[in-house]
Design brief:
- The structure is a single chain.
- The protein is an alpha/beta fold and 221 residues long.
- It is 57% helix and 11% strand.
């Protein structure tokens, strides 16, 4: 079964909503339309996750304000901006805030479809990251309280002796907990354990930094 590709069109011009909706539906997309940013934000929490075609210039709430509201609410739907007039500073701000593309009207079908292809690729990455985070949290939940404390110390870059001092236990006990948590997490290297820890939100670094931190830790142990 092919996964639905949902596009939310937010534009105050009825003609744009109609023409863009028709174009996308005939290209295999599922489409929902909204006449204002306010109308979109009112429903967004209950909407099917997809990508957003968002007009920049709208009354009451413009596109950038809608983008800011989505970020504040933690809603990670990729945005492709549409605009009737090119504005470099506006485009730069939109892209810095995570927009996928900034397209000027009137636009060509191929340009919009290309931007949506990138947007759905990003959406797929977000979903994969969310799945990994949930799986990592389940693995971490299977650890004992002490094992989670040791893992947090490792994620903070502490050596076994420093973790032992902080927890008031012996370095040998830290080593035992470390070996046990590695077994429970199903990993054989420190970097593997750190990737799971960071994916679950344990520690101050990102998943991509796990390998670098692990290599430095192995050198200094």
């Amino acid at each position: 079964m092919t996964e639905r590709r949902v596009v939310h069109i937010v534009d105050d011009e009825a003609s744009i909503r109609r023409s863009t909706s028709f174009m996308l539906k005939t290209s295999g997309y599922t489409v929902a339309t909204y006449a204002s940013g306010t109308a979109f934000l009112k429903e967004v929490k209950q909407l099917e996750v997809g990508c957003v075609l968002l007009d920049i210039h709208m009354p009451y709430l413009d596109g950038l304000q809608v983008q800011d509201a989505l970020i504040e609410r933690g809603i990670a739907m990729p945005i492709v901006f549409l605009t009737g007039c090119g504005d470099v500073s506006t485009a730069v701000r939109a892209m810095k805030r995570g927009a996928v593309e900034f397209i000027e009207k009137p636009f060509e079908k191929e340009i919009v479809l290309g931007a949506l292809y990138l947007a759905f690729s990003r959406l797929g990455d977000l979903r994969l990251k969310e799945m990994r985070s949930q799986e990592a949290q389940l693995l971490i939940a299977g650890l004992s309280v002490r094992e989670r404390e040791v893992l947090r110390g490792l994620a903070e870059g502490l050596a076994n002796k420093a973790i032992a001092l902080e927890l008031g236990i012996s370095p040998r006990t830290v080593e035992v907990h470390r070996a046990n948590l590695m077994t429970k997490l199903g990993v054989h290297t420190l970097s593997g354990g750190l990737r799971i820890a960071f994916a679950a939100g344990v520690g101050p670094w990102s998943v991509d930094q796990a390998g670098v931190l692990a290599r430095s830790r192995e050198i200094t142990r």
